[in-house]
Amino acid sequence: MADLSSRNPDWWRQAVVYQVYPRSFADADGDGLGDIRGVTERLAHLGALGVDALWLSPFYPSELADGGYDVIDYRDVDPRLGTLDDFDALVAEAHRLGLKVIVDVVPNHTSHRHVWFQEALAAGPGSPARARYVFRDGRGEHGELPPTDWQSVFGGSAWQRVPDGQWYLHLFAREQPDLDWGHEEVREDFRTTLRFWSDRGVDGFRVDVAHALVKDLREPLRDLGAPALSAEDALEGMEPGTHPFYDRDEVHDVYRDWRRVLDAYTPPRTAVAEAWVPGARRALYARPDELNQAFNFEYLQASWDAAAVREVITSSLATARAVGASATWVLSNHDVVRHASRLVLPPGTDTNAWLLSAGHAPPVDEEAGLRRARAATLLMLALPGSSYLYQGEELGLPEVAGLPVEVLQDPLWEQSGRVRKGRDGCRVPLPWTTSGPSYGFGAGGAWLPQPSSFARYAVAAQDGAEGSTLEFYRTALRLRRKLLDGEELVWADGTPPGVLAFTRSDGWRCVANLSDAPVPLPPGEVLLSSGPLDGDGRLAPDTTVWLA
Questions:
Q1: How far apart are CA 276 and CA 263, in angstroms?
Q2: Quick one: pLDDT band at residue 1, thresholds 50, 70, 90?
Q3: Residue 543 contacts by C-beta under 8 Å, 6 or more apart in sequence?
Q4: Is residue 114 a contact partner of residue 72, using CB atoms and an 8 Å limit?
Q5: 452 CB contacts (<8 Å, ≥6 apart)?
Q6: What are phi and psi of 380, to 5 degrees?
């Protein structure tokens, strides 16, 4: 496979990017934890799948207080996962296979074990070391109350008191102190980090919590009143750009600065923002002088309803087009219930309550879930823009909702007072073989237990098997590469209720039946179907087809 970026610096505009969660992908040394060499040894799987790039979730030194997003050193590899030499070998092999490499960068916060934070604790109040973070005196007669009522995403106060009486801000876990992006030393250090990985051949960056870096730290700090755990809830009803720590207008100065760094390379390095903000605001992060793209979570969040999905697609394309970006599409990632399970939960289901019931209330029909997942994927892959796949979805993996609480690793469980089960169910290590102590993940066990049902989803069970989800993904990605041209679509009029149909710029069509009844299939050669057609050739419910 050719290295597309050497010919097309805009390779990312319609790429298929495969997210690798390193600790759960493949374990080369048999210690139960996935590692960099394990990823390298399995890169042929991605090459055969037909993706354009892999996105590597954090692999940096970390105590895993938040699955690797608590970074101790931004310019090294966690010793449990390998070395910088191992990383260089991964990049070299990926490039040999024609795969781009995107890595996570986590700029909002460090680990509390980061050398800067350790210096800040030792230096004391008012020191230059503390100025890199957000330290404040508390309220109350003796400073015993947090500086504000701001809440952590993981529950409870976003402030943690230290022995000398001051408090530091942590919008996530208390092991993740927030940096002060008003400090030039912080900004320069991240420029150095971007150059460090770009110099090692990295092709792009995924920016974690891109909307939260810049805070309004003018005194007195503002209370918010009612607590809101999610950025979306916190921003509701507030004048855009004015929230004290989410989606402030000034954050775009950071990304314009980053773009100058990224454009110094040939080809320019790309970036994609994780920004949980409304669509029109999200598009600002994807402007040409900022990060190129921003994740579109509306498709992931859309109900299984044709009108709702069409509205999301139409608005997402228009929003991206308005700033000269390409749209992004995603159905699963390391933070959400896998879509093979999620798409068959009744509308309005409390997914946390479902997880706490071990997936029994309500029960999930795995066959029906996989049928919808395949239909949603084939629809997504027909859309203009980039598609982001999450490891294991090409196998049809469902959410592992039944993990016993004693094995949970996600800090959400403990920090929420054991009421939010967390994200471990989508992070269970992948099955590669149909047997063995970890189904081929490694020579030993796995850091999260895999259910016995994983045997039938394993790569070895599906490789070459007609009709398997793995072969379906391979075929879809191979066809997509041949068919994709331009970034436009035209909706078909007069489709039956519950059906979506559109034509792409070079004339091929996508038809998706999200209704509960078969519908007539439009004329044309069926290039690929996400599931069997009805007995008389009609398009079955929960099925998508591509037509020539």
A1: 25
A2: very low
A3: 371, 375, 512, 513, 529, 530, 531, 532, 533
A4: yes
A5: none
A6: -60, -45
- Any idea which residue has 């309500």 for tokens? 362
CA-CA distances (angstroms) from residue 461 to 131, 433, 448? 55, 7, 21
CA distances from 38 to 23, 262, 463 (A): 9, 29, 19
Contact yes or no for 544/530 (Cβ under 8 A) = yes
Tens digits of per-residue pLDDT, 176-218? 999 999 999 999 999 999 999 999 999 999 999 999 999 999 9
φ/ψ of 463, rounded to 5, equals -60, 120
Phi and psi at residue 217, in whole multiples of 5°? -105, 20
Identity of the amino acid at 38 = G
Bridge partners (DSSP) listed for residue 509 = 503, 547
Rounded to an integer, what distance in angstroms lies between the CA atom of residue 213 and that of residue 308? 32
Q: Quick one: tokens of 462? A: 């599906």
Q: Can you state the percent helix, strand and coil of the chain, rounding each to 5? A: 30, 15, 55
Helix crossing, 366-381 with 469-483: angle to 10°?
Answer: 10
Inform me whether the pLDDT recorded for 5 exceeds 70.
no
Model confidence, pTM: 0.95
Query: Residues 301-339: pLDDT tens digits?
Result: 999 999 999 999 999 999 999 999 999 999 999 999 999
CA distances from 342 to 140, 260, 387, 412, 548 (A): 45, 40, 19, 20, 31
Distances 477 to 296, 463, 473 between C-alpha atoms, Å: 20, 15, 6
First vs last C-alpha separation in the chain: 25
Cα separation of 35 and 441, whole Å? 11
Both tokens assigned to 268: 């320019």
How far apart, in whole angstroms, are the C-alpha atoms of residue 122 and residue 127?
Answer: 10
Q: Which of 171, 133, 134 is nearest to 151 (CA)?
A: 171
Q: Is 497 exposed, middle or buried (0-12, 13-18, 19+ CB in 10 A)?
A: exposed
Taking Cα atoms as reference points, which of 69, 156, 150, 163 lies closest to residue 110? 69
Positions marked active-site? 208, 274
Contact (Cβ atoms closer than 8 angstroms) between residue 540 and residue 512: no
Whether 387 and 462 have beta carbons less than 8 Å apart is answered as no
Mapped onto helix, strand or coil, the DSSP state of residue 337 is: coil
Helices (H), 200-335: 231-235, 251-262, 279-284, 298-301, 306-322
Tokens representing 54?
Answer: 């892999």
